[in-house]
Amino acid sequence: MEKIIVDTREKNFHLVEELESLGIEVEIKPLKVGDYIVKDVVIERKTISDFINSMLSRRLLIQIEELIQYPNRLLIIEGFEEQELYPDESLIINGKGIHPNSIRGFLLSILLKYKVPIIFTKDYKDTAKFFSVILKRKTQEMSLNANKKTLNSKERKEFILEGFPGIGPKTSKKLLENFGTLKEFINAPEEDLKKILGKKTEGIKKIIEGEYKEGLYKKD
């Protein structure tokens, strides 16, 4: 059986141990994109808490943009039996609320706009089983330098705006049509933003103007 390549920054040692217990060879080395390479698939793995944190910090946008450069990519969201991804009420993180529909909208954007498949797994053992199934597929050699797709300037701007809670594809286009550039959007007076964003303006301004701090959620 072929080996799985694990990024040196990946912190889920339980998953690595589980893979080895299944008789799967693991090689740990730096990866430019993703947390794992399984056969011909580049995989980004997130626990639910890390998904929410990276969504709020917009780090996930950068990772998705890198991921879509490759034809076979996958986002795994792990731990849905242990923690709700979108509870009935808004989540409060560092004093900022995030509505469950913002999370749903972000997931739909990943799936429909950026064509990144998403798999939800129960825990690290379930994730390891998915990896095992991928390994058993017929080998399809993949060069990580081949078939890259890059976003154009317009798409990159839309992609960045959609990282803000409550901003979807339609709203991002409307904002860019109105303000022209990301710089003008960021520097726009609150009253101008309210004309398009309404009640969402306050939360978005807090993200733009707030200091960077460690989120309440921690990555495994």
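That was protein one. Protein two is written in the same sequence-then-structure order:
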Amino acid sequence: MSIPSFFTPPVSDGGDRPLLAGGVSNPQDGGVLLACTIRDIARAAGVSVTTVSLVLRGKECRISEETRAKVQQTAREMHYVPNQVAVSLVTKKTNTIGLVYSDMLNPFYAEMAAGLERSAHLHDYGLLICNCDEQVERCIDNISLLESRCIDGFVLQPPETINASPSRLHALQEKLKACTTPYVILDRAIHDVYHDYVAADHQLGGRLAAEHLVRLGHTRIGCITGSLSDYGSKRRLAGYREVLEAHGIPYDPSLVYEGLYQIESGYRGTCELLKKDITAIFAFSDLIAVGVQRAATEFGISIPHDLSLVGYDDSSIAPLCSVPLTTIRQPIELLGRQACEILLARIQNPAKEHVDYFYPPALIQRSSCSLPRANPAPLL
């Protein structure tokens, strides 16, 4: 049951103590407003409790528009808020969904969560957000926490290294297989679990990045990846390799630095790759690209004149980099919104067929790429 639109939030009386959600004054408690009930509204409006209940629940019944408006106005003035716990006992629903995601400090995930929340809000659902800080154990604990709150469903964006540890992967698989709460997996696939799934087409994204650099004339392209146990990183690398093969460029595994989707990995990877004769770097996330730019600045290397750079995500930081970043755009907010829509459909129909949604990324050109430098010797 959603809160009708005519309700307004409780207000303060100007004192130090917060007011509760009702509008019934208790003089013996210093004038603090106490939570009002439908009986209080009925008394104030001069109607029956049944009439108030029918109006506030939006039931179609033989109640005059005048009486209906009076009840709604009285509820507003008394700052009535329905007791969601009591409603949930009757409806067996909480109108709340959860989100378990891997890194709340990463702007990519923050933007994705924003899209999910906006979609939930449009459907009168609340959202509980849990951060697992890239830890599988915390991910499992957060799922248990959401289940204990009797949420209607949740969206899970698993940790980056979930597939790197067989024992931890198995623990999460078993948790999800035993889970009776509807859920959707976002961005990172989990093998051997039957679920709805939403992600970008990362292999296409890898092809777009590599094709852009190759068309500029680059043939020695370094890659700084996330964990290669991660589905997205593997697919981006596969797309990169497809382009090299299509253009007859040999694949050199020494030009691939495996890290994490973090600034530090971008910095460390750049320090290693600059010892080789690369002319460009494909960073597998915008955060990694920030680390690349930091290292380039430290070593006096000009982007794009000495080194071209392509990122991935087109998060909010991409146009704000010291050199505005050419990057692969994922439809970040759309991914969050679509995950929410699929979850709500799953809640309404738990038996429906599971779906996979893959969204095409796009190349966004800014200022971080140019033709290869004339002397391709190592920069360090």
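Residues 94-200+332-360 form a domain with the Rossmann fold fold (CATH 3.40.50.2300). Keep this in mind for the problem set.
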